[in-house]
């Protein structure tokens, strides 16, 4: 029997019992939409997280202090004085895979301009900071080496700070703002970078020479953190090992002692996030697959009922010359059509739901080809697997006994 005729017979048989067909497809629709939703959300979230973190600089490497327990009291990293400018200079000179490095000193105060004010995070760094953090000047300019050496009272504002202090859209460059009690001149603004998945705002920052924070605000001679960029993303792991080795030598840490610092790279963070997202996605897909199994069992159950109801029809077809394989194909086609139709609707519903969820969290939306392909493969497999045994039973019926069936 030709495939065209088989499709026609299968579709007519399914349309004779529309309610039953819809209810049978419902299990597949729910299962496939769940799988499509989970895969799409997982892949979209991973891509979005990677894009957001890459906004910090694909080759970013950070050296930070490790919290210590001193006589039962945990000492905050901001109070630790073990990291010095000489560590930055050693990394610059001795690390072959490091392109640029900057000391980082932070402070938090209220920043005021006229009648407007907001809490501000001051990031003190050197002239390499903008390149390391992948930040672009939108208006004005960056501070110079001379301003860094003289601890000049100049600053660059992130867009969140700009919107808070200059809500009417005026150009902040050249204006004076006050950070705590210290007046500062705005010399530039940074192009908007947005927020990451955890809600951290990359634009809620004020950048100034690290010497300004050290000498004029905090009166300290140590630094809080070191930021560096590897020469390329491919050598980030080697760069991390180089920096660790240099820091161990600079801090005279013995092999059997715990270091007072930790080195991490953006690529390591992204790999860790990717692994977590992969495990989470697999777990959620496994849960969603349970409803697919239930839907498949529903198809098998309905096909058994269909075979029983159409026993006389099967006997008639056999008596007119239909072969076993024709009967087998007929019921397999019905099962496959049920599964694929439910799968198509399920994929559409799953993608629509994932789009709604992603837009609700302002994350954008991207169609996951993997979700679509996997869903259709699963649909075809379920249709054949759960429809095979009822179809085989129908094909094995004795035509004389089938014609006598009441």
Short description:
This protein is of the alpha+beta class and 406 residues long. The chain has helices spanning 3-15, 18-54, 85-94, 129-132, 145-149, 159-165, 210-218, 236-250, 266-309, 311-319, 324-360, 369-395, 399-404, and strands at residues 60-65, 68-70, 73-75, 98-113, 116-125, 137-140, 154-157, 176-179, 182-190, 206-209, 225-230, 261-265. The chain has two domains: 3-52 and 272-404, no CATH class; 67-259, no CATH class.
Question: Can you describe what's shown?
Answer:
With 406 residues, this protein is an alpha+beta fold. It has two domains: 3-52 and 272-404, no CATH class; 67-259, no CATH class. 55% of the residues lie in helices and 18% in strands. The protein is built from 13 helices and twelve strands. It has helices spanning 3-15, 18-54, 85-94, 129-132, 145-149, 159-165, 210-218, 236-250, 266-309, 311-319, 324-360, 369-395, 399-404; strands at residues 60-65, 68-70, 73-75, 98-113, 116-125, 137-140, 154-157, 176-179, 182-190, 206-209, 225-230, 261-265. The strands form two sheets. It has a six-stranded mixed β-barrel. Strands 2-3 form a two-stranded antiparallel ribbon. A hairpin with a 2-residue loop joins strand 4 (98-113) and strand 5. Helix 1 packs across helix 11, helix 2 (18-54) packs antiparallel against helix 12 and helix 9 (266-309) runs parallel beside helix 12. The two termini are 27 Å apart. Residues 70-77 have low confidence and may be disordered.
Question: What are its keywords?
Answer:
55% helix, 13 helices, 12 strands, 2 domains, six-stranded mixed barrel, 406 residues, alpha+beta, two-stranded antiparallel sheet
